Amino acid sequence: MNLNRSSASVFLIIFLFLAGVLLTGFFFRELSNVQSERMNAWTEDVTGECAVVLTGSKGRVKEGLALLSRGSVRKLIISGVYEKATLREIYPEWPYYGDLNPDDVILEKFSQTTYGNALQTYTLVQALKCSNLVLITSQTHMYRAYKTFQKIFPKDFPIIKRTVIGASYKTDTFEEVEEAFKSLFYSVWTY
Fold it and tell me: How far is CA 52 from the centre of its chain?
């Protein structure tokens, strides 16, 4: 089959148009998934052996420490911590939690991405011999984080969502769009 330049250009334009339509469809699917996550930290009680806080937005560490102080979890992993940070620097309110044992909080300092959080947390969960995990992150981040953790952990390992409010109660449209793009990328490379 011999195509001239004009036919090749038309074919390329049609191909790019269809690829754009397909990518737009995938993007809006991911945006819908991101927007479908609901905050449940105020409405549902959870218990588990271990919990992981994915650092990022305000309120996540506080929620993890609250679960630990109530005895809802026995170990708390704070994942994605700056390499030189201490627990007191991360959460200065620590002394107000009374009898909490600092040995029950593990600062994971190697991961820099959600995928890295999942890999490092899985290693720690195995070492701690936890039979389930409470995943604590923001409403906007939960869809991608949960899918990533499901991919890394064994299929039958219970992962319990603990969704907290991010920077504000109402999610920001820009933040949702940004997260949808990240989720689209992760859907290709991670899950």
Answer: 10
